[in-house]
Amino acid sequence: MDARPNSPEARDISYHMHGYTNARKHEEAGPLIIEKGDGIYVEDLAGNRYIEAMAGLWSVAVGFSEKRLVDAAVRQMSKLPYYHDFGSKSHSPLIDLAEKLVQMAPVPMSKAYFTNSGSEANDTAMKMIWYRSNALGQPARKKIISRIRGYHGVTIATASLTGLPNNHNSFDLPIANVLHTSTPHHWREALPNESEGEFSSRLADDLEKLILAEGPETIAAFFGEPIMGAGGVIVPPAGYWEKIQAVLSKYDILLVADEVICGFGRTGEMFGSQTFGIRPDIMVLSKQISSSYLPISALLINEKVFEPIADESNRIGTFGHGFTGGGHPVAAAVALENLKLIEERDLVGNARTVGAHMQKRLRKLASHPLVGEVRGVGLIAAVELVGDKANKMPWETAGALGGLVNGFMQQNGVISRNMGDALAFCPPLIITEPQVDQVIDAFERSLEAAVKQVRNWRARLPCRLVSLL
Ligand SMILES: Cc1ncc(COP(=O)(O)O)c(C=O)c1O
Known about the structure:
Blueprint: H1 8-15, H2 23-29, E1 34-38, E2 41-44, E3 49-52, H3 55-58, H4 67-79, H5 92-104, E4 111-115, H6 118-135, E5 143-147, H7 156-161, E6 178-181, H8 186-189, H9 196-214, E7 219-224, H10 240-250, E8 254-258, H11 272-275, E9 282-285, E10 297-301, H12 303-316, H13 329-344, H14 347-363, E11 371-377, E12 380-385, H15 400-411, E13 414-415, E14 417-419, E15 422-425, H16 433-460, H17 463-466
Parallel strand pairs: 3-13, 5-6, 5-7, 7-8, 8-9
Antiparallel strand pairs: 1-2, 2-3, 4-10, 9-10, 11-12, 12-15, 14-15
The structure holds pyridoxal-5'-phosphate (PLP).
Pyridoxal-5'-phosphate binds near residues 152, 230 and 286.
């Protein structure tokens, strides 16, 4: 890090508080300042180039230098830089994008509603669900079920839906009326000799028990990501979504598919809901909708959701919710152009074919002594690292090995991200097979560097401990 008092690094430490960062460690280590982007690459201030193997935050589908998105933004900025949709106002990019999204949906959807982030979209979904319950004369139906290790955002309500301790600790969350059910992670959570199908049935039973214990008439909705992303790229086991949906329909509970990561091609289908046979009532979309060139998110709602909400807004006089920037014309124009690019260049097909190559190469590492599990679909994957393979136990403390390998990846020219000990891969959808090979070659080198460190650590342990590992 450049330690001069007026360096960008020093000024970042002085003036900028970061998201998802240990603020004290940051004062010591300083930032990695990314200055420009080009295709799947980004470059830091010192001119070091990295493959962005996380597509930023799971989001830059078309890469970091797409001129057509820049041109779309400039065109719209020059014509109508801002407008909104309150009080029946509208504008062309918004209408075009709403129509496009409803037409793209894999199940019949009625309307699109626009927000600015995944958190805002999920927060809005919760509010719509509560409003709908009141509209239907079911004021007791307010509880929402999500899953341990699910991720749905960071507002007060959506951090409550999120099932990760770091989003609750010291924030006094979760709020009331949010319940968490089990994580569909077969490798870690299954009982000895339990098949994927049996595990899925057990999780559906867990869900049903929770619903019955709380009272089915109090449960409004279930939120789930087709693949859990920030919880560690957890791919659901065989039969999971079918069995979960059977329980939800039995008790007339709405299903919200949080497609914020999976949507727009990530899994090798346009939506994760298609990959896993999910039939949602609400779909939550963000990130790859605009390749995150500008913030925009959307909810798609079906008739079952829209109709009672429309009636209630008529009774009250308005649907009293909306964001100043919701459906911003420049963001909507960029999203439309981005979706056009995803279709024209068949980036969904690329996620399928190049993704198959990435999955195959990663799975070859399954026998590596530090690899516990390799999981993923299409262009999203994680490798869960372990210090003790037989017992699926971490090295030193949970997350230490993930952090170590993630650091080596950066030294090897690849930006990845460790969620605890799960190292994630989620590159731009434009990535090619040779570029995937570069990422995985760097990963292999990083694993070997980690092996040396783990050996040194073992050598320093007392003999009786080593025999346990
Ligand atoms: C599945 C999912 N839902 C919601 C969110 C929250 O989105 P945002 O960070 O835009 O608020 C994220 C962010 O990573 C996500 O992965």
